[in-house]
């Protein structure tokens, strides 16, 4: 497929610095965006900070890393032949298999030639006179493009808290989101893990099996449900292939973008025995099934408490030391209001003799020393520290780039009180800049591959629409942006989700404005809204020649 467009100004091989489109990031989003824009005949360059494709699945190589939306659903649906030829081996594929899949996609659709690896975009500035974006990289390159698509990821800006003394540590330090490609052997080592979110919950059982001793430094306990992972059964795979079109349609029009049987009953409207049976069945199913146990779990505090108490009872039944079980038990926020974790053997790991749980809410970390971690109470000698401290989620990767819109207004300024977007796709004052799974869209509250595909298709249709009509720019109006922000808030406040100090509201990053960032009205509803807006000639956007 040609990488050249009849209408692009200059594009010639390696030296080209004028493109129709620049895409930042080569994960699920960037790869599919590139495929679609090439299909439109646009000259396109992708910049990727990593040295390979995969995004999340390139960087997060820690032991135990795997998806927690089932792989049959957590995969592209845009290509019939890709769907037929790729076989997943497990219910939830591990990182190496997902990375292999994305490499296969890059080869299958001949995408690599348009991707420049090991290159970080540091700035993107809109030139109002030329109606083009100027994009600068950390290699000193500067290119221009009519369209700039940020496929930078919601969970790609790894965050290490600024602990005093961190530079003095003489052992090895790792972040789960920047794991060495060659792997790490912790045999015989004393290891500290800081954090107990999704990544920690996945890697802790693996680290405990290797390390001589594992110290888990926990600030906030999380609710975790069992994955019940295993080989993908041939019957399930056959059923998926036979009914794939129907299932994909169901997922596109669902709440979360993947299958959860939603029980329409209220948790408070049934007898305790029926409630217990329902929760037990969901626990046996594994994964996010618990979320659909009753219609009001995420809407009503009392209903939520029944689910929370059920999970707490499982923790008490699994962890033999009652004091450790107590520390692992979340009590101060509603069930699922922080990202629900899905695990294999997480709670039983705390029954091992070589695992110690340290409550750093009660006894905070004071500093990292040359030999370990010192809390206000004790010093823990460590050979290695694993930071499972997560990401500056949703906005971090965007704000790490110096983005300037009309009149040079920095995105940082436009978002000084929290992110503002129209549909999570565009930003007022930033024409022709698209954000895939941006704040204000279902993003992390959904099967992200499905949400990525929806955004990519909406954006490429939009660019096709502009080009067919010889229109140069599209830009969200301030009114549409304000109305969308109010709607996102209103929907969030109807639920219990904003009640936790979570990364959904930016609470893990000191100084970050507290705004509930994802749109939780459901991916089906959201898709309809986006489609209607496009069908009405891009309502809420200004389109200019
Ligand atoms: C461990 C883990 C497990 C997950 N499991 C699931 C799951 O089960 N289900 C689910 O729906 N989601 C899951 N997610 C979320 C996951 O991030 C998305 O599903 C998806 O992979 C995001 O794809 P993306 O292309 O949007 O972003 P990413 O995969 O994050 O890719 C973004 C890329 O952009 C690059 N980039 C960023 N800034 C720049 C820059 N300035 N210059 C150049 N390159 C840049 C990054 O290097 C990165 O490679 C998980 C996330 C993590 C961390």
Walk me through the structure.
It is a single chain. This protein has 545 residues and is of the alpha/beta class. Strands 1, 2, 3, 4, 5, 6, 17 and 18 form an eight-stranded mixed β-sheet that branches. A five-stranded parallel β-sheet has the order 7-16-8-9-12, covered by helices on one side. A three-stranded antiparallel β-sheet has the order 13-14-15, with no helix packed on it. The radius of gyration is 24 Å and the shape is globular. The structure holds flavin-adenine dinucleotide. The site of flavin-adenine dinucleotide (FAD) has 36 residues, from helix 1, helix 2 and helix 13.
Could you list the spans in which at least 5 consecutive residues all have pLDDT below 50?
1-14
Structural class: alpha/beta
Percent of residues in beta strands = 15-25%
Rounded to an integer, what's the Rg over CA atoms?
A: 24 Å
Layout of secondary structure:
Layout: E1 18-24, H1 28-39, E2 44-47, H2 56-59, H3 80-85, H4 95-108, E3 115-116, E4 121-127, E5 132-137, E6 142-150, E7 172-175, E8 190-194, H5 198-210, E9 213-218, E10 224-226, H6 234-252, H7 272-285, H8 301-318, H9 322-328, E11 341-343, H10 346-349, E12 355-359, E13 365-368, E14 372-375, E15 379-381, E16 384-387, H11 396-399, E17 402-404, H12 411-414, E18 433-435, H13 448-468, E19 473-476, H14 478-493, H15 523-535, E20 541-544
Parallel strand pairs: 1-2, 1-6, 2-3, 4-17, 6-18, 7-16, 8-9, 8-16, 9-12, 10-11
Antiparallel strand pairs: 4-5, 5-6, 13-14, 14-15, 19-20
Helix pairs in contact: 1-13, 13-15
Bound molecules: flavin-adenine dinucleotide (FAD).
């Amino acid at each position: 497929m040609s990488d050249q467009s009849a209408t692009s100004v200059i594009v010639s091989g390696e030296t080209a610095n004028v493109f129709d489109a620049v895409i930042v990031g080569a994960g699920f989003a960037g790869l599919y965006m590139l495929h679609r824009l090439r299909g439109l005949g646009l000259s396109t360059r992708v910049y990727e900070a990593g040295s390979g494709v995969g995004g999340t699945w390139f960087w997060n190589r820690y032991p135990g890393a795997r998806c927690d939306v089932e792989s049959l659903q957590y995969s592209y649906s845009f290509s019939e032949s890709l769907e037929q030829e790729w076989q997943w081996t497990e219910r939830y594929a591990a990182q190496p298999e997902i990375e292999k899949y994305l490499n296969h996609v890059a080869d299958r659709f001949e995408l690599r030639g348009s991707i420049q690896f090991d290159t970080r975009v540091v700035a993107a500035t809109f030139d109002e006179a030329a109606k083009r974006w100027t994009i600068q990289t950390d290699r000193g390159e500067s290119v221009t493009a009519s369209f700039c698509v940020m496929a930078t990821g919601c969970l790609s800006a790894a965050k290490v808290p600024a602990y005093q003394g961190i530079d003095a540590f003489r052992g090895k330090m790792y972040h789960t989101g920047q794991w060495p490609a060659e792997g790490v052997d912790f045999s015989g080592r004393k290891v500290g893990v800081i954090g107990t979110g999704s990544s920690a919950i996945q890697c802790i059982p693996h680290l405990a099996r290797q390390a001589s001793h594992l110290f888990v430094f926990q600030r906030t306990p999380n609710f975790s449900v069992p994955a019940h992972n295993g080989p993908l059964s041939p019957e399930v795979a056959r059923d998926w292939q036979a009914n794939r079109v129907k299932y994909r349609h169901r997922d596109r029009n669902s709440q979360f973008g993947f299958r959860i049987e939603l029980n329409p009953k209220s948790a408070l409207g049934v007898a305790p025995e029926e409630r217990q049976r329902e929760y037990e069945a969901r626990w046996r199913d594994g994964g996010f099934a618990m979320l659909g146990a009753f219609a009001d779990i995420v809407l009503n505090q009392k209903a939520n408490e029944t689910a929370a108490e059920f999970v707490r009872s499982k923790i008490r039944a699994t962890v033999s030391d009652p004091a450790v079980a107590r520390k692992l038990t979340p009590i101060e926020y509603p069930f699922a209001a922080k990202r629900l974790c899905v695990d294999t053997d997480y709670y039983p790991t705390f029954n091992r003799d070589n695992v110690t749980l340290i409550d750093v809410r009660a006894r905070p970390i004071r500093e990292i020393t040359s030999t370990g971690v010192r809390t206000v109470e004790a010093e823990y000698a460590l050979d290695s520290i694993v930071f499972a401290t997560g990401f500056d989620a949703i906005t971090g990767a965007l704000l790490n780039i110096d983005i300037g819109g009309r009149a040079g207004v920095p995105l940082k300024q436009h978002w000084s009180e929290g992110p503002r977007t129209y549909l999570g796709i565009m930003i007022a004052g930033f024409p022709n800049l698209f954000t895939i799974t941006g704040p204000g869209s279902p993003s992390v509250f959904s099967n992200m591959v499905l949400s990525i595909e929806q955004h990519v298709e909406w954006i490429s249709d939009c660019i096709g629409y502009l080009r067919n009509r010889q229109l140069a720019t599209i830009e969200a109006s301030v009114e549409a942006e304000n109305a969308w922000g109010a709607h996102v808030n209103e929907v969030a406040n109807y639920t219990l989700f904003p009640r936790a100090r979570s990364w959904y509201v930016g609470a893990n990053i000191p100084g970050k404005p507290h705004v509930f960032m994802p749109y939780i009205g459901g991916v089906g509803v959201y898709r309809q809204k986006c489609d209607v807006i496009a069908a009405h000639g891009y309502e809420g956007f200004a389109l200019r020649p």
